[in-house]
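Now for one protein, fold included:
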Amino acid sequence: MPHRRTSAWILLLALSAWASPAHSQEPSVPAGIRSVDSAGRLTSKGAPRIARGRKLAVVVHGINPDHADLDPLSRDLARRGYTVVRFVYDDSERLHRSAARLRSALAQIQRESRPGQLRVVAHSMGGLVARRALTKDPLPSPPESPEASQGRVLALAGPLTLVTIASPFGGFWPANLSRADFGKGPPVFRDLGNWAKFIRKPGELASGVTHVKVETKEKGKRLSGKSDKSVRLRRQKQKTVDKGARVVYRVDRGHVGSINQGGRVPEEIRSILTRAFRGRLPPKSKALPAAAKTRRGSSRGIVGRLGGR
């Protein structure tokens, strides 16, 4: 009889161990990762379910965002068969801190969910955050992840495609004045000046990352009767970033209009996403000599003229 009771206890312990969170629960949700509903809208109702092995797309917003502007992009990605989540961060915070949080989130997703494909699509300043998160550069460990090693680079479990749209990689001259505002302005301004170290030294992309850079010709563009010009074309250029990009496309669209034109993703952006996700990008070595000229000289990388001259 005692032998039977002992065997029963052993069986119960084994079952309880199998039913522990490590075996029964879905992968945990990283900090900053938010879910979207069936219409692509950001929602706070419940944590996103990131199933193991599924295709995953992470959408990253820019500064002072209207999150509804990203809804068409989220819907488009969902129609392509991706589980779509948003990375939401404090856009007034220093960019390297936001990048560290995104890096930590992506590392956790790859470690726990092992997505079949992982794509990161970032708009405006979100492109600066996303690209820095995917570099070899050391970043400070996020406060919510003290277990992460200080300075650890992102170790990718598989290839990752990064698409940045209308991102100010070249920085803004007025933001340099934040050095003389006695700390009254948002901390993020210290990283957005064209003299800022964050802009001048953007870092080298980690192995396995394919960067597809989309520049926007925003001059003269309007949206809902208002100017849709936020980032000049020359402010989207940065020597190291352009050299490291797998391909650079240029579209004749405004800043917000590049991701939301009448509630839809512009056709040329959809075409670029299709090429990027299916690996139908032109060989960089062959396309380099055909780089288009701009008023300030030649651009590095490949320039695909889509949606206009």
The chain has one domain: 26-306. The first strand starts at residue 33 and ends at 36.
